[in-house]
Specification:
With about 230 residues, this protein is α+β, with helices and mostly antiparallel strands. It folds into two domains: about 10-135, no CATH class; about 155-225, no CATH class. It is built from eleven helices and seven strands. Helix 1 (about 30-40) packs parallel to helix 5 (about 110-125). It is elongated.
């Protein structure tokens, strides 16, 4: 299990510029509701990401609760869903994907404008100086913790070949950490394997970037190393 525990960090007031209200025909109260939700309930976390509580999603995406729940269950990716301090939340990346797509596809001009407005709110929070400072702290923490994963993994053999680990052995992330980069996954020793240097090089030579492909190619990797 990852030792990186997500915590909620309130967004500082006036930490970013609020979006422009571009449609004067829309009741200002609808804009106000999104402003209120973003200022009071949307938050940052120590992974540098923006999170939206599930209870806030209907307002953020401008949908009735039942329809919003359907969207959460069937359209928003499970990979973007988290539980932080006992609260069910969604990463803004997943919400923004929906908002951006819907703002281009809906035939309702008001719905499109409110979707863009909410999206720009979330982007603004994520681009704020506060969020950037959190990400800098995270980079420092990650660089410090990554070298510890091999020991935390607890295996003293190459988990593909079965050979004893050598001096240059390393921890290999089963899902390429530059692509699957949630910090609580990157720093989880259960999300990778210990391998010797030659095995590690063969994995990358084959351009294996996810756990499913790695599992399918274990025997191939082992045979390729044996042939050398």
């Amino acid at each position: 299990m990852s030792k990186f525990e997500l915590v909620a960090i309130p967004v500082k007031s006036n930490s970013y510029e609020k979006p422009e209200r571009k449609n004067q025909n829309i009741d200002s109260k609808k804009y106000d509701k999104i402003d209120k939700e973003c200022s009071e309930n949307v938050f940052l976390s120590n992974d540098g990401n923006v999170y939206i509580p599930v209870k806030s999603v209907p307002t953020i995406i401008n949908q009735q609760k039942k329809r919003a729940n359907y969207i959460i269950d069937n359209i928003i990716s499970d990979a973007d869903k988290r539980n932080i301090a006992g609260q069910e939340v969604i990463n803004s990346a997943g919400i923004n994907y929906y908002l951006d797509k819907n703002s281009h596809q809906t035939r309702d001009a008001e719905d499109a404008e409110l979707n863009r407005y909410a999206r720009n709110h979330l982007i603004g929070i994520g681009d704020s100086d506060q969020a950037e400072a959190i990400r800098r702290q995270l980079d420092t923490h990650t660089n410090k913790e990554l070298p510890k994963l091999k020991k935390q993994r607890g295996s003293d053999v190459d988990e593909i070949t079965g050979e004893p680990l050598e001096k240059k052995a390393a921890f290999h992330h089963s899902n390429e950490k530059e692509i699957f980069n949630y910090p609580n996954d990157v720093l989880d020793p259960e999300k990778g394997i210990n391998v010797n240097d030659e095995t590690h090089k063969e994995i990358h030579r084959l351009n294996i970037m996810d756990s499913e492909t790695l599992e399918k190619n274990k025997e191939k990797i082992k045979k390729n190393i044996t042939k050398k």
